[in-house]
Design goal:
The protein is an alpha/beta fold. It has helices at residues 17-27, 36-49, 60-70, 87-94, 114-121, 144-154, 212-221, 264-274, 277-294, 324-327, 331-340, 356-362, 368-376, 388-402; strands spanning 53-57, 78-82, 99-103, 129-132, 157-161, 169-171, 177-179, 188-192, 205-209, 302-303, 311-312, 321-322. It has a 7-stranded mixed sheet, sandwiched between helices. Helix 3 (60-70) runs parallel beside helix 4 and helix 9 runs parallel beside helix 14 (388-402).
Length: 406
């Protein structure tokens, strides 16, 4: 009997016995929710990316919301968001009742540059812009030094959406290698640990920063807005007993927060996965190299992802540029044909400014770089457990579906 063909999703987690054992150890212990493993994960993560502080939370979306809260955005403010991103980047801004100034992106990389930021600053929402949120797409970085310099000139906060870029480094203006998450050119960096990401914890997010006030606000807002530190209490009447000692049960809520805490169960998986980050990133880079070589003969119909100079990506997605029109077919037809051959694909992303909610709120917008990128992107399978032969299988199937000689 012929062995069934293994289905290759566009992305998936890589969980081994060490990860399982780490979670079981928590299940057999005293803490299930926020306990010692949460703190251990935060300390290890901050050290790994080179940040002073890290705070874990329930999802990457929660992290983006917390970041908007932490920099003080609210009604009357706006943030610049590249339209080529997931919904959560823009939605995190709307959660605090601020507006979204959508920016265009480079048509080859899908990344927002300084010129795109400047164009957004000149938009009708420009006077109210308080923050800029560069998105690192597929594992490659936006030009952070340039964007940061422009933001600082305008007094804007910078929030890096690095949900695709754990393990990525880039060169700064002085030639130094900068780890994404170190916040060299930003106030906050946000990560996601969704199962398709390089490090998975089921659901989870992380915020890194070097600002003590920002991390205090993040930690407070992720836990209902509660404070227990006597120095931060606004109502002292009940906080102290007649003998002058602080009441050990006392807490106050200066302003409402959210239940965005992460559990020890999830963080046990995250911490175990983090220890394998270098191996995961190395393997993803190897697979990308195999893809690049295998696609060489399919140009100009299929071209590898455009590269960002000076960036060493911790690849999250492999999205070659495909000229579907020149191939005489449509993207949906290609996806369905590949699915029938046991190969999963996805589109990252439909530009957010075209979502019905945002079109109704801001009207139709012309962002040609994003529109062009959107027409040719298709994410092929990329995850660390793939075998070398899987890349060959994917590329052969793609060539067959597109009817392109290799």
């Amino acid at each position: 009997m012929k062995k069934p063909t293994r289905f290759l999703p566009y992305g998936r987690q890589a969980v081994d016995e060490e990860d399982i054992a780490a979670v079981v150890e928590v299940l057999r212990g005293d803490w299930l929710t926020t306990g010692p493993v949460v703190e251990a994960f935060e300390i290890a993560f901050a050290e790994k990316v080179g940040a002073r502080y890290a705070a874990v939370c329930s999802s990457g979306t929660a992290a983006l919301h917390l970041a908007s809260l932490a920099v003080g955005m609210g009604k009357g403010d706006a943030a610049i968001v590249p339209t080529m991103t997931f919904l959560a980047t823009a939605n995190g801004v709307r959660y605090v009742d601020a507006e979204v100034a959508f920016a265009d992106v480079d048509s080859n990389t899908g990344l927002m540059g300084a010129a795109h930021v400047q164009a957004a600053l000149n938009s009708p929402l420009g006077p109210g812009i308080k923050a800029v949120i560069p998105v690192h797409l597929n594992g490659q970085t936006a030009p952070m030094a340039e964007i940061s310099a422009l933001a600082r000139q305008r007094g804007l906060k910078v929030i890096e959406d690095a949900c695709h870029a754990l393990g990525t480094t880039y060169g700064d203006e002085g030639g130094d290698s900068v780890s994404v998450g170190s916040c060299r050119h930003s106030d906050i960096t946000v990560f996601s640990f969704h199962p398709v990401k390089t490090v998975a914890m089921g659901e989870g997010g992380m915020i890194t920063t070097n600002d003590a006030e920002i991390i205090e606000r993040v930690r407070r807002f992720r836990n209902h807005g509660m404070v227990r530190d006597p120095e931060r209490l606004s109502d002292m009447k009940e906080a102290f007993a007649p003998d002058g000692k602080f009441e050990p049960w006392y807490y106050d809520m200066p302003e409402p927060g959210f239940n965005y805490r992460a559990s020890d169960i999830n963080c046990a998986l995250g911490l175990s996965q983090l220890r394998k980050l270098d191996r995961f990133v190395t393997r993803r880079r190897e697979l990308v190299g195999l893809y690049d070589k295998a696609l060489e003969g399919m140009a100009p119909i299929v071209r590898p992802p455009a590269r960002v100079e000076g960036c060493d990506p911790g690849w999250h997605l492999y999205a070659p540029r495909i000229d579907f029109s020149a191939a005489g077919t449509g993207r949906a037809a290609v996806m369905r044909s590949l699915q029938a051959k046991g190969i999963g694909t996805q589109v990252h992303y439909r530009p957010v400014h075209r979502q019905s909610y945002y079109e109704k709120r801001y009207g139709a917008a012309s962002l040609p770089g994003a529109e062009k990128y959107y027409t040719h992107c298709l994410s092929l399978p990329l995850f660390s457990a793939m075998e070398d032969s899987d890349v060959g299988r994917v590329v052969a199937a793609l060539a067959e579906v597109l009817e392109v000689d290799r």
